[in-house]
Specification:
Helix content is 32%, strand content 23%. Helix 1 runs parallel beside helix 8 and helix 3 packs parallel to helix 6. The longest helix is centred in the C-terminal third of the chain and has 22 residues. The protein contains 13 helices and 22 strands. The chain is globular and about 80 Å long. The structure holds flavin-adenine dinucleotide. Flavin-adenine dinucleotide binds next to helix 1, strand 2, helix 2, helix 3 and strand 4.
């Protein structure tokens, strides 16, 4: 029988959500235990998700810039390029991240334990280490941050060698010649566009006529245009009938319209599922929804008030940025500290090529709410910064109320979209008027100029409307 150690807060899972929860608790002077089953800390964000995919993306963009830099280079990738070559910076990035996080945990006096945690009761957690040692912890507040894993349907035989998911994709030895990507969500579209830029023959397959159904349609059309210019294909409105590895060289995919596709590899990207099974949640009376996620309120409280669930395990959107905010928010709520309302304005960043970002209402949502919102557009072709970097196409859409006074949302596709959106985020949060984008002077040449152009577009429409009414 192991004795139990008492803490103020126990956090299960050291991904972005758990880390931020732990740091927040420690900064408030609480005794915090952080339990992580893996050797490294950082979660799927660091080892299988955000950081590896963005490192590969950076390599793809870098190679593309080299290719476009001039014919003099005659640059092309070797046919048997190893994935490891493209991820050469990954180890450095992960190590830098890991040592930063470890320092942060030590500096804040957080007790870090490595083992698999499960509930024994509402206030007691049991942890088992890889050596089989058991340890119990009790706490006033418990934060569950165990993240998610790929959802692989039974009908597709993921073998992690020919048919891969996002956890195993980057363990491929070589860049494949062809890749079928099943699933037009964020992860599917990101990887599809990265591999397409690397010269892989990519076919992206989804049930819906368009990928990224939750994004502004105009942005998605721009994305598809860029994607198809790379020689890749989007096959919409398709159901997968059967997938099999033919034991020789191809993954054979049969589609509902009778088409058969042969590719060297397949990526299955059909969403994520919360890691709830190992936690023995029933011992603490924690409810799980029929979608397999833990329902929480705006403070990330579960149905058991002193137990919080944060990050991917409470459902979409699966974003590291949201996970961190959840961790912070949950612990501040538990400790009665002021929280702020940042969670209502979390931006969405999609690292496709070209990248996309969104905050607030998009055109369709604004039409539902305001009937006739005004939409200002700035095309990147009009922006000197985009012309200089040869960034090609891009679009910033500014959504305003029907009077053209109040900002409702920003959507961007194109180079630096995921950075550019933050200016809109601050403006939304501070109730900035459309006119103030014109009153301010922006650096030249910058992408931020797009805000001014879009605002001018809106004010132009307001002026036209006034003139028409006066006539
Ligand atoms: C390919 C890909 C690309 C992505 N790109 C982006 C991006 O560009 N931007 C972005 O914001 N987000 C991105 N994400 C999403 C992001 O990685 C996740 O939203 C984020 O990691 C979720 O954080 P989390 O803390 O909730 O969970 P996780 O990061 O999954 O961490 C959960 C931790 O809990 C541990 N754990 C699980 N069960 C137990 C247990 N019983 N006991 C102890 N420990 C346990 C796990 O080992 C893990 O370390 C991407 C994801 C993928 C897969």
């Amino acid at each position: 029988m192991s004795t139990s150690v008492a803490f103020d807060i126990v956090v299960i899972g050291a991904g972005p959500a758990g880390q931020k929860a732990a740091v927040q608790g420690a900064k408030a002077g609480k005794r915090v235990a952080l339990i992580e089953r893996e050797r490294g800390i950082g979660g799927s964000c660091v080892y299988r998700g955000t950081i590896p995919s963005k490192t590969l993306r950076e390599s793809a963009l870098h190679l593309d810039r080299l290719k476009r830099a001039g014919e003099a280079f005659q640059f092309s990738l070797k046919p048997d390029t190893q994935i490891a070559t493209l991820l050469s910076r990954l180890e450095d990035v992960v190590q830098a991240h890991d040592s930063f996080m470890s320092r942060q945990i030590r500096r804040n006096g957080i007790s870090l334990f490595h083992g698999r945690a499960r509930f024994l009761s509402e206030h007691t957690i049991e942890m088992q280490t890889v050596d089989g040692v058991q340890q119990q912890f009790t706490a006033d507040t418990i934060v569950v941050a165990t993240g998610s894993r790929p959802r692989n349907p039974e009908a597709i035989p993921v073998d992690h060698e020919h048919i891969l998911d996002s956890d195993s994709l980057l363990s491929m030895m070589y860049l494949p010649r062809s890749l079928a990507v099943v699933g037009g969500g964020v992860i599917g579209c990101e990887y599809a566009s990265i591999f397409a830029l690397l010269g892989v023959e990519v076919t992206l397959i989804d049930r819906a006529p368009y990928p990224l159904q939750f994004m502004d349609r105009e942005l998605v059309e721009q994305f598809i245009k860029g994607f198809e210019q790379q020689g890749a294909h989007y096959l919409g409105g398709q159901h997968i009938e059967k997938v099999r590895w033919n034991e020789v060289a191809h993954v054979v995919t049969k589609l509902s319209d009778g088409t058969t596709i042969n590719t060297e590899k397949m990526l299955v990207a059909l969403g994520r599922q919360a890691n709830v099974e190992d936690l023995n949640l029933s011992a603490a009376g924690i409810m799980v929804s029929d979608k397999g996620v833990i329902p929480v309120n705006q403070y990330c409280q579960t149905n058991v008030p002193h137990i919080y669930a944060v990050g991917d395990m409470v459902g979409a959107p699966a974003l590291a940025s949201k996970a961190m905010e959840h961790g912070r928010r949950a612990v501040r709520h538990a400790l009665n500290l002021p929280i702020g309302d940042a969670a209502s304005t979390i931006p969405l960043g999609i690292y496709t090529i070209p990248e996309m970002a969104s905050i607030g209402l998009d055109e369709m949502a604004a039409r539902e709410r305001y009937r006739d919102p005004l939409i200002g557009r700035a095309r990147f072709e009009e922006i000197a910064r985009a012309q200089i970097s040869g960034a090609g196409h891009g679009l910033l859409k500014m959504v305003a109320d029907p009077a053209g006074e109040r900002l409702l949302g920003i959507q961007v596709v194109g180079d630096s979209a995921t950075e550019l959106v933050h200016l809109g985020q601050l403006a939304l949060q501070n109730g900035t008027t459309i006119e103030s984008f014109i009153d301010n002077v922006f650096n030249f040449p910058t992408y931020a100029e797009a805000y001014r152009i879009a605002a001018l577009d809106i004010l132009g429409q307001v002026a036209k409307c006034r003139t028409a009414k006066a006539a």
